[in-house]
Every structure is written in structure tokens, then in C-alpha cells.
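hi! just following up on the protien thing from before. the input was this:
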Amino acid sequence: MRRKGISEQTIALTLILPALLIAVLLIIFPLFFSLYASFTSYDILKPNSFKFNNFQNYIKLLYDPVFWNAFLNTLIFVAGALFSELLLGLLLAILIARQKRGGKIASLLALMPMMFAPVLVGFQFKYLFNDQVGLINNFLQSIGIRQVIPWLVHPILSRLSILIAEIWVSTPFMTTVLLAGILSLPNEPLEAAEVDGASSWQKFRHITFPLLSPFILIALTIRSLGISRAFDIVEIMTGGGPGHRTELLWTYAYRKAITEAKFGMGCAIAYCSVIIGISISLFLFRQLLKTRRGM
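and the predicted 3d structure came back as:
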């Protein structure tokens, strides 16, 4: 029973006030503080350096070869991860959906990598790809390949190694969303196509895939926002090296802001990565809206 003199709006505001305060302190304030810091020359070791310097940080990035290398690596990494996770996630979702027996066990096994923290995945794959004691090199030597492969040092293989780790830990999310989409599809169009003599590929191409496209775009949109979790994996496996070969915008921002104490420059790099993530998400979201309008 509500007390007299206390409105429902007051009660509601009182109940949500703690959540609002937490959001302001942990999300909104850091967001705007880091945005302002990206326009300053703030150095952590020099408190008096917190001075507005217009767009100097962003102008310096235009002439920074390491930044452009990290920028290109980030684009390749995001594109490679999203495409590979979509392909593998779709394949796993189809296989699990077709399982008459053992479907629950197959689902559990397919989703297990998602239960691991990115930090643990980084250490796990760093051990697997280690050129001296790594399981992969030991296996290759056991089948007659005596040459030691420097997975985490080679210019191409080091990028491939961190991409494999990211795909392993994030594909289960894509599988979950696509499996939910496949199980929710209507059976009538597939049954009609089967009566007309359509092959499995024709049913997938002309019926299943178009109906599944909203789920695909939703999964890609969410993953494009969450793919920055790969910072943990990259930092642990290669540390952005050697020679900044595997540097991504997230690791480069951390290196500038924390390791080199140039917090303002680090914030500027971080917001460049934010712009990339938002741009990809907006593109995918617009494609999703077009798909929904066309249905």
C-alpha cells in the first residue's frame, strides 16, 4: 500500500537513482573525460600538462606510421574475424540443428569456448603457438616436420595466430544467434521447395539464407561492437610486436596512454577505434533495416 503524499514518480525515481549514479560514475563521466583528454597534451607523469591543444593529437596521428599500421591491422582483423566467425558459426548452427540425437551435447561442446575469459584464451594460445614448447610445433615435429615455426614472431603467422584465437573464443556467440534463427524459421517454405524437387543447396540459398539474414546482421552488429575484447588476447600473445607488426588500435592506445604515459594521445587513438566500430555497426544496422523493410 502506497503512503499518502509520495507520488509514483518519486518512488520510481528513488528506485532507479542508484543505477543512474553508477552509470554516471562508471560510464558517462569516463566517456566525456576521455573525449576531452583526447584534445589535451595530458601526460600522466606531468599533472600540469592537462591543457587543451585543439586537434594536435589527431594531427600527429596522421603522420604516425605505427598508427596507420595499427589502423590497417585493425581493419584486416575485424573483417577477417567477422567473416570467419560468420562462416563457421553458420556451419555449426546448421549441423547442430540437423542433429536428431545428441543435439544438446553438440550444442554444449560448440558453446564451451565462449565460457573462457579472453585473458585465459590469450595465455592458452600463447602456449599452443610457442615456438619452443608449444603443442602445435611439437605435433608438427612428431609427424616429421623438423623446422621450428615461429608462429608469434613471423610477420604473417603472428597475425594469423591472434586471429585464430579470436575466432575460437567468439564463434560460439555467432553459432548461438544463428542457431536460434534457424530453429525459428517456418517449415512451410522448405516443405514446399522439397515437394518441387529443390536440392539442399537450392533450399539454403533461396529460402533459408534470405530468411536468416536478419539474424546474421544482428549477430554481426553485436560482434562488431564487442570485438575490441581481442585486446586481451593480442596483448598477452604478442604484446603488439614484434616491431608493432600485430599492433591494433586498442593495444596501441594502451601503449601510448599507460606504457608511455601519454594519456591524451592514447585517448585520441581510442576514439579513432570507437569511430571505426560505430561506422561498421551503423552500416550493418542500416542493412538490417533494409532487410526488415523488404520482408
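The CA atoms of residues 191 and 203 lie 10 Å apart.
The mean pLDDT is 85.
cheers
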